[in-house]
Design goal:
- This protein has helices spanning about 1-30, 30-40, 45-60, 60-75, 80-90, 95-105, 120-135, 140-145, 165-175, 180-190, 200-219.
- By secondary structure, the protein is mainly alpha-helical.
Length: about 220
């Protein structure tokens, strides 16, 4: 009698475990965004990042690639940051997604408050280029950062907004004592036609040039 009871209990337990496994697989396949949100809300960042990637692979929307990118950047996972940033930049709705993010940010700025955080598009390029730099791809980092500002290879920047990717790589290279990268960026900044820039861009460009000059004096 006891054997029959135990067999019944074990059979029920096994069936329950199998059912749970099937449901988990079904959720992972059919509802990755739900698992992404759940994982993030309970603090499972890497799991959330994984399901954000799966959601992007399934739906191809910028939102999911950006979700994965932001987690990877916060966790300082440079290889993943590079991967997700590249995927985000390749999304068809990337430009419109950036505009939505900028509008959302602007709506949250209190009247009279001066907050120059830069655009979301430049945020993505900053994360991408710094990840490349830290992955020993300094030349590629500079090229991509300059291209994000409208500079063709060896050319000058067409814009220079606050907190842009080229400035971010410059600051990192200065702190790292990487004179080769600093010199390369200095050449790009020197060749930039300031007459084509707005006043804010001119001021930020001048600030970066001044940092290079001060660094040269101190070395």
């Amino acid at each position: 009698m006891n054997k029959i009871i135990w067999k019944s209990i074990l059979a029920t337990l096994a069936s329950t475990l199998i059912l749970c496994g099937v449901l988990a697989l079904a959720c992972a396949w059919f509802f990755p965004p739900t698992l992404m949100e759940f994982s993030y809300n309970v603090g499972w960042d890497k799991t959330a990042m994984k399901y954000a990637q799966k959601s992007y692979e399934r739906f191809g929307e910028s939102y999911y690639a950006a979700y994965a990118l932001e987690i990877a950047a916060d966790l300082e996972l440079d290889d993943k940051t590079e991967q997700y940033a590249e995927e985000l930049l390749s999304c068809k709705d990337f430009e419109s997604y950036c505009s939505e993010q900028d509008a959302r940010f602007a709506a949250n700025v209190t009247e009279g408050e001066n907050r120059e955080e830069g655009t979301y598009k430049q945020y993505v390029y900053v994360k991408l280029c710094l990840a490349k730099y830290r992955l020993n791809k300094a030349e590629e980092a500079v090229q991509r950062a300059a291209a994000s500002l409208g500079a063709e290879e060896g050319g000058s920047c067409r814009e220079f907004p606050v907190n842009n990717a080229l400035a971010a790589v410059l600051l990192y290279a200065l702190d790292d004592g990487d004179t080769q990268t600093v010199d390369k960026i200095s050449g790009i900044l020197s060749s930039t036609d300031e007459s084509a820039l707005g006043q804010n861009d001119k001021d930020y460009l001048a600030a970066m040039k001044n940092l290079i000059v001060q660094n040269t004096k101190n070395t």
